Amino acid sequence: MTPVPHRSHADDLLTFIRASPSPYHAVASAAQRLEKAGFRELRGTDDWTGTTGGSFVVHGGALIAWYAPESLPAHTPFRIIGTHTDSPNLRIKPTPDTGSAGWRQVAVEIYGGVPLNTWLDRDLGISGRLALRAPGGRTDSRLVQIDEPLLRVPQLAIHLDRSVNDGLALDRQRHIAPIWSLGAADEGALLRRVAAAAEADPDEVLGWDLMLHDVQAPGYLGAEREFVVSSRLDNLVSVHAGVTALAAVATAADAPAYVPVLAAFDHEEVGSGSDTGAQSPLLERVLSRSVTARGGSSEDWSRALAGAYCVSADMAHAVHPNYAERHDPGHQPLPNGGPTVKVNVNQRYATDSSGIALFTAACERAGAPWQPFVSNNAMPCGTSIGPLTAARLGVPTVDVGVPGLSMHSARELCGAEDPGHLAAILTAFATSG
Fold first, then answer.
1. How far does CA 45 lie from the centroid of its chain?
2. Which phi and psi (to 5°) does residue 355 adopt?
């Protein structure tokens, strides 16, 4: 059976994932855990002067958190853990009410690299946030989470499409409007349902960022329950590990030698090109301001950045037993063998030898295994926020990740031990080395 410490971490991970069906919920879940560890939220309009200890900033679906002990000088280097809160899914269009042939349906848009066949015949709920009218001409935001089996994208019966197994011939780009009731399209019906779940008046709703999520609970799989199966493992495994690491640093008896940082960005799955993505100046502005708030100068900021290092933690590919030829023959990571260090000399990953050395040293201090990962030369290589962060801040970066199967699927798989290994390694990275 899986060792108890890793099982405990995996149990907590499943709780975190279930509470985080959207990036906004993931940020709220992370913030709640950080507050419990003594962190406090700072707003952009607040005065940060003299701020030390644990702090975090929420910006939409992104969160930047850091822990700066009062004893450390303002030029203390950062140890940055980079992750992302978003996952590929189906997102509800601004005009959602549609229907056909006597069915009431919802219009959706594909977000990120979605394997559409994995979303067919699954019970789907709705989550995200509503933008509400507030007094004085202001607007407010409210989270909504409907975990009921409210919608489904029904697959066409094989009797009506005998070629469905021939390369998945059905044009699912055109046939993905989920059903949720019988009857003609009813303008405003979906909004009324969602607003009621958020305890809001539909007339108060000015806009929304809503998406669908699989309502099947995360859980374990395997003869000895050695695997975790869940939606959104990519990349809530890493977000949860990063939160766990920062909370451990903040509650430890000894102060860290560095300023540990968690950067949980949004919109990584679509290129990170937003005000909450890794291409934005969000991280740079927050960290620079944190130095100034502790009495630092521009010289202190430059010194803190010059000595900084970043671990970009995103999911990785475990070798697939049915498609082993798609993987590099010399690099075939397996679940429960430890996180991978991802290398690509064309800079789809930012790892170099110094990054490998830093990460492996953290693995040794944590007593955790690791595995190398390189893509097959004949296959296009994915990327992550690592190269974006490295280019944006000029900070050496190493790309790592827990190996899994069915990446981007509505239901993914990874080893039950690896999330705990990652958290332990990130904690060691954040405190020393």
1. 26
2. -65, -40
Question: Which residue type does 180 have?
Answer: W
Contact 342, 397 (CB under 8 A): no
Q: Return the minimum-mean-pLDDT range out of 1-10, 192-201, 202-211, 344-353.
A: 1-10
Q: Is 23 exposed, middle or buried (0-12, 13-18, 19+ CB in 10 A)?
A: buried
Residue 133 has pLDDT above 60, yes or no: yes
Please give the structure tokens belonging to residue 299: 């010289």
Q: Could you tell me how many residues make up the chain? A: 433
For 210-225, b/e burial (b = at least 16 CB within 10 A) is bbbbbbeebebeeeee
Whether the Cβ atoms of residue 262 and residue 268 lie closer than 8 Å to each other: no
CB 102 within 8 A of CB 182: yes
Rounded CA separation 367/235 (Å): 23
Residue with tokens 């010399």: 330
pLDDT of residue 2: 45
First vs last C-alpha separation in the chain: 32
Report angle CA 360, 361, 362 to the nearest 5 degrees.
Answer: 90
Domain boundaries for CATH 2.30.250.10 within the chain: 89-214
E strand or H helix at 27: helix 23-36
The predicted structure's pLDDT at residue 328: 93
The predicted structure's pLDDT at residue 98: 94
- Packing angle between helix 353-366 and helix 418-431, nearest 10 degrees? 110
Pair type for strands 371-374 and 340-343: parallel
Stretch 136-159: mean pLDDT, rounded?
93
Domain spanning 4-87+231-431, CATH architecture: 3-Layer(aba) Sandwich (3.40)
Residue 194 DSSP SS3? helix
Which pair of tokens denotes residue 345? Answer: 């000399």
What is the location of CATH 3.40.630.10 in the chain? Answer: 4-87+231-431
How many CB atoms sit inside 10 A of residue 101's CB? Answer: 5
Q: What is the DSSP letter of 277?
A: S
Q: What is 89-214's CATH number, 1.10.10.10, 3.40.47.10, 3.30.390.50, 2.30.250.10?
A: 2.30.250.10
Question: Looking at the predicted structure, is the pLDDT value of residue 169 above 50?
Answer: no
Structure confidence by residue, pLDDT tens digits, 89-111: 999 999 999 999 999 999 999 99
